[in-house]
Each structure stands twice: as C-alpha cells, then as structure tokens.
Backbone:
C-alpha cells in the first residue's frame, strides 16, 4: 500500500479487489441481451443470499444507498401510512427526514448512540399506537458501528401485525439475516459496502406480496420501486440508464463472496479484522466508544484522545501518507473518529494499520 494507491479503511466506498476492478474494463450495451442476463443474474444471486427465494424479489436502483432507502420508504409506506422510525444514529435520523419530506406520518423511538433500541419499548409503543403501519430500523448503525437487534425487532413487529423496513446498508453481505427467519417487507443495501463492489447501485429486497400492493405510493418517477420492478418484469431492462460497469463489478464481487464461503465466511473475516483493530488500538491507549457486546464487525469508533498533541488532522494525514485512509467524518455526539474493518482487507492489513497508528503517535509525540 502506498499513498497513491491507499487502502480504504472506511465503510464504503472501500478497498476492492483487483478482479472486481478488472470486471469494469469492458463496456456493456444496456439493452444488449448479455447485459440483460447479467442484471437477471445479480438480482437472483442477491435474493438467494437473503434467503428470499420464492418470497422476495431484488429491485436494483441507480444511485447511492440513500436513494434505495428513500425508494423503499416511499414505495412501501402508503400516503396514509405511519412510520415508526427507530433512531440511534445518523442513518435512523436520515430515514426520519426522508419520511417527513415525503409527507408520511412519523413516530420515533430514540435511544443514545451507544444503546440499541429496546424490543420491549417497541412492543409497548406498537400496542399504544395502532396508527403505525410500518417500523423502519437500521441493522448496523454505521454512525458508531453498533449492531441493532434486528431479529427481535422483526419478531415484535410481526407479532403486532405491522410491517418492517430495514436499512441493512452496512450489514448485508456480512451480517447474517435470513428472510426465512426474519420477517420483513423490504431491506435496502448497496453494492459498495459488505458486498465489496464499487459505488453506484443500491437495491431493495422486496417481499413480492407487499410490492404488489405498492403501485402509486412513491410519488416519484425515478425512485418508484414498483415501476422499477415492473420494468424488469416487462423486458428484463432497467427503466433508465443502468450503471453497467458497477453491475459487472458486483457480479465479480459476488463470485468472491461465494468463494469466501458466503455471508458466514465474510462475517468470520470481518470479525477477526475487528478484533485485531480493537485490541491493537486499545493496546496503544485508544478507547472504543462501544462495548464489544454491541460492536458490529463493520466499523469501529474510537473516542478522540484528550491529549493536546493529538491533532486529528495531523493524525489523518500521517496515516494517509502511510497508505491508510481512515474515516474523517464524525457523526457521533461524542468526539470520536472511525476506522472501518470491511473491504478486501484481512488480518495482515489490520495489523499494518495498527502499526502505522503507533508510528504516527510516536511522530506526533503522543503517548496515550
Ligand atoms: C452507507 C449507509 C447508507 C447510505 O449511504 P450512501 O452514502 O447514500 O451510500 C445508509 N444507511 C446506512 C446504515 C449506511 O451505512
């Protein structure tokens, strides 16, 4: 790794493999039968990964993950519906805002950013508010990297006869979630996180029976998943210009996921990456924001050291010069910074970043 060709230790876009990048070295006609077949292939493979064969359909959508989440919320929640959004970070808050802009009635349950939503509180709220039609929840809240109890949330939501919409953007592909056991109407994710593709494509795994009743809800042409799915049903084609190279890269990325042993294999590698990162950083004196019990193996948030010689900009630039791009954006309330442990990186790379952090602290004259 070098400063010119760095490792991205970020939650996506992230470090991709050479074969994923190589898959983009040819052009595809968007209406060519070969590209139509490629689209059908990735849609079927994503449904299979979710355990949704027979019950669910994959609707890919041009754009970043946020586009897919917005399409999911507006397509599935009817105009007269009401969404209960579970918020413990920036992405839950983003869903609340998307529902508000779309004019949907909203309720929220907010917990601290280091505290998962409580299924018992959800149950009580659903019992108290019969107007709520949908619950919207984030699987891994990337703000901190916290793992939310999605199975318990799904169980409570189903028990109350309501419908669940999941933002599993930073989880799908690495965190197990099987549609045969976890009941949801829709789950949104994207090409460039745990699937290790490149950015440009979101997708929503939709329960077929729920999608069938969603015509006309979206109030948007481009973000209407019902229409998008109808387009694929009609002729296998995308309604509007598809991100052809991104689709090709995703197919290669799915090959690599299979070769790694699927979601279970990927989870194992990320968990090991996360362990090495947390333990190595703790040995250097950093303090993770989250207790290990609620840490998802996706991205680790560290408290900003109080040492006056620890200037984050210098720390960041020093690591970048050593070939490691960490995540500079702070989303948490507490002063913090984040380092991702997902992408085409393994134990050696995680040990290398910890070593680089140690050298950078020495150079800054910081001892924690
Ligand atoms: C990355 C992410 C998104 C979408 O972000 P984009 O920048 O639009 O790709 C949504 N939710 C979560 C939890 C995420 O991690």
Residues:
């Amino acid at each position: 790794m070098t400063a010119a060709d760095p490792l991205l230790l970020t939650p996506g876009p992230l470090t991709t493999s050479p074969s994923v990048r190589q898959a983009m070295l040819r052009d595809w006609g968007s209406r060519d039968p070969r590209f139509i077949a490629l689209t059908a292939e990735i849609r079927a493979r994503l449904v299979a990964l979710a355990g949704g064969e027979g019950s669910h359909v994959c609707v890919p959508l041009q754009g970043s993950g946020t586009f897919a989440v917005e399409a999911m919320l507006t397509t599935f929640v009817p105009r007269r519906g009401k969404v209960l959004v579970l918020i413990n970070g920036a992405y839950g808050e983003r869903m609340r805002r998307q529902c508000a802009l779309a004019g949907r009635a909203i309720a929220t349950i907010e917990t601290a950013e280091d505290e998962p939503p409580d299924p018992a509180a959800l149950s009580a709220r659903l019992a108290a508010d019969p107007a709520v039609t949908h619950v919207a929840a984030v699987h891994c809240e990337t703000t901190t990297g916290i793992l939310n109890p999605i199975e318990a949330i799904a169980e409570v939501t189903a028990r109350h006869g309501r419908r669940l919409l999941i933002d599993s953007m930073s989880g799908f592909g690495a965190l197990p979630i099987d549609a045969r056991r976890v009941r949801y109407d829709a789950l949104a994710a994207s090409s460039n996180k745990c699937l290790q593709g490149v950015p440009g494509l979101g997708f929503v795994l939709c329960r077929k029976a729920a999608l069938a009743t969603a015509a006309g809800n979206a109030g948007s042409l481009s973000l209407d998943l019902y229409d998008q799915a109808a387009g694929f049903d009609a002729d296998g084609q995308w309604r509007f210009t598809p991100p052809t190279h991104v689709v090709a890269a995703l197919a290669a990325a799915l090959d690599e996921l299979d070769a790694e042993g699927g979601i279970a294999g990927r989870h194992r590698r990320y968990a090991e990456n996360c362990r090495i990162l947390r333990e190595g950083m703790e040995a250097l004196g950093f303090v993770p924001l989250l207790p290990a019990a609620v840490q998802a193996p996706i991205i680790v948030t560290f408290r900003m050291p109080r040492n006056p010689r620890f200037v984050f900009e210098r720390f960041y630039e020093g690591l970048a010069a050593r070939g490691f791009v960490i995540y500079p954006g702070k989303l948490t309330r507490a002063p913090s910074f984040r380092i991702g442990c997902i992408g085409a990186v393994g134990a050696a790379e995680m040990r290398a970043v910890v070593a680089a952090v140690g050298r950078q602290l020495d150079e800054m004259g910081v001892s924690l």
Summary: Residues 11-12, 64-66, 69, 91, 138, 142, 167, 169-170, 190 surround pyridoxal-5'-phosphate (CB under 6 Å). The mean pLDDT is 97. Residues 261 and 267 are 10 Å apart (CA to CA).
